[in-house]
Design brief:
Elements (H helix, E strand, L loop, with lengths): L1 H18 L3 E4 L6 E4 L7 E4 L5 E9 L2 E9 L10 H18 L2 E4 L3 E6 L2 E13 L4 E8 L3 E9 L7 H5 L2 E2 L3
């Protein structure tokens, strides 16, 4: 009996650890990589009116949806673009995403986030609630070439470890 129980416990542990494969996955051929609990497979690609490329994908793991949005600018922002102008461009894109995601409530953009290794990048954090009362926690980032937005969606957004996910991306050098 002990041998059977021990085998069952071992199988359950392997299944539990094999289900999540947290690592950086490529956003198609952009050179951007995003942290996800599972392989997001193919990203949905849309060309924006200004010629920039939009990449979107979500994966569900346990009780949460983990999402990644990337924008590759057709024309990079000018070297003279100010930090305030970067924030305005990022927030403009996020406002569009709010409409698509049917957001009903927001806390408001919290500016001032930076990333080690990306001196020209600025970021915002926000908390949203959609029409189904799902809570969305997100961080959006912008530099002269890219926008990256990482978010979680679920009924409880107080889970530990989300800060690592919301910071979890790399850009091509």
């Amino acid at each position: 009996m002990f041998k059977i129980l021990n085998s069952l416990v071992c199988c359950l542990l392997v299944a539990a650890t094999a289900s999540a494969q947290w690592r950086l996955y490529p956003v198609e051929q952009t050179g951007i990589k995003v942290l996800m609990p599972l392989d997001p497979q193919r990203f949905e690609i849309t060309q924006l009116d200004n010629g920039s490329q939009l990449y979107i994908q979500e994966v569900q793991y346990e009780n949460y949806i983990y999402g990644a949005i990337a924008v590759v600018f057709k024309t990079p922002l000018a070297a003279t673009t100010t930090e305030a102008e970067k924030y305005a461009a990022l927030e403009s894109h996020l406002n569009l995403f709010q409409n698509v995601m049917e957001i009903q409530h927001t806390v408001g953009y919290g500016r001032g986030h930076t990333r080690d290794g990306y001196p020209d990048m600025v970021g915002v954090v926000d908390y949203w609630e959609d029409k189904d009362e799902l809570q969305i926690q997100l961080k959006g980032w912008i530099n002269s070439k890219y926008i990256v937005v990482l978010y979680t969606r679920g009924y409880d957004t107080n889970a530990k470890g989300w800060e690592a996910f919301l910071q979890g991306f790399s850009l091509p050098k």
